[in-house]
Recover the amino acids of this structure.
């Protein structure tokens, strides 16, 4: 029997991509395609809610799904670790699953994983992320996730001088993030790591969202159906084959 889906934010750029991918899957049936202002009461009769709205609307979508006891796949940016902590008790008490995917691109997930490993070897780390000029929030969910993972893998804070100056970017987990919003861009992230005498830049560039996101959407949607608790990141469902080294000191 197909999983009955309510797609909220169905007419948006990402919602349109997600809707197209799920429509091609025989094990999913989109029974409700909703806008951000539509009545969310209909989600009570589905098996999975897919949220592709805005940061402001997303919290209400998750709340309504939690109250209805329906699992949620969150594709909306803005869900930092602190924001997730606020809903964690409610989600755990309900027994449902909330899967939060900052980025559906496999390349982006790999880029973040590589940056997390490399971040243990460099004390100067900054993130530059670029998105289309219509993206509402900044920094991006991918940049926030990358910063949080890098800092979690470190034993000491990142060296980020002069962060009291506004031009130094927004600090997330102690790492400066610089957000660019410009036409003609889909999504790009550069993680710049610097040390004495050298610099390493890890770049991921999305050039076609439909084809780049499709594999990740399929993986996340199928995993979200049976998920329990809050699960963040596409990397939770795929084996990246990357393990961090035992020590953070490099030798020549």
């Amino acid at each position: 029997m197909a999983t009955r889906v309510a797609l909220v934010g169905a007419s948006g750029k990402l919602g349109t991509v997600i809707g197209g991918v799920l429509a091609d899957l025989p094990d999913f049936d989109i029974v409700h395609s909703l806008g951000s202002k539509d009545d969310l009461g209909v989600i009570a009769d589905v098996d999975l809610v897919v949220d592709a709205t805005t940061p402001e609307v997303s919290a209400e979508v998750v709340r309504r799904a939690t109250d209805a006891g329906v699992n949620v796949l969150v594709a909306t940016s803005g869900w930092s670790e602190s924001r997730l902590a606020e809903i964690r008790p409610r989600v755990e008490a309900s027994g449902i699953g909330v899967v939060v995917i900052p980025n559906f691109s496999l390349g982006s997930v790999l880029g973040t994983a590589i940056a997390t490993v490399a971040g243990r070897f460099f004390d100067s780390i900054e993130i530059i992320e670029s998105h289309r000029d219509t993206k509402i929030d900044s920094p991006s969910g991918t940049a926030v996730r990358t910063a949080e993972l890098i800092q979690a893998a470190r034993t000491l804070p990142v060296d980020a001088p002069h962060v009291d100056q506004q031009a130094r970017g927004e600090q997330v987990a102690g790492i400066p993030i610089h957000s660019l919003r410009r036409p003609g861009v889909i999504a790009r992230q550069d993680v710049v790591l610097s040390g004495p005498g050298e610099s390493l830049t890890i770049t991921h560039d999305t050039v076609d969202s439909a084809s780049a996101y499709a594999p990740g959407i399929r993986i996340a949607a199928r995993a979200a159906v049976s998920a329990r608790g809050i699960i963040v990141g596409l990397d939770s469902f795929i084996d990246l084959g990357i393990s961090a080294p035992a020590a953070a000191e490099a030798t020549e």
Remarks:
- The longest strand covers residues 187-195.
- The domain at 3-103+209-235 is CATH 3.40.50.720 (Rossmann fold).
- The chain has a mean pLDDT of 93.
- The chain has two domains: 3-103+209-235, 106-206.
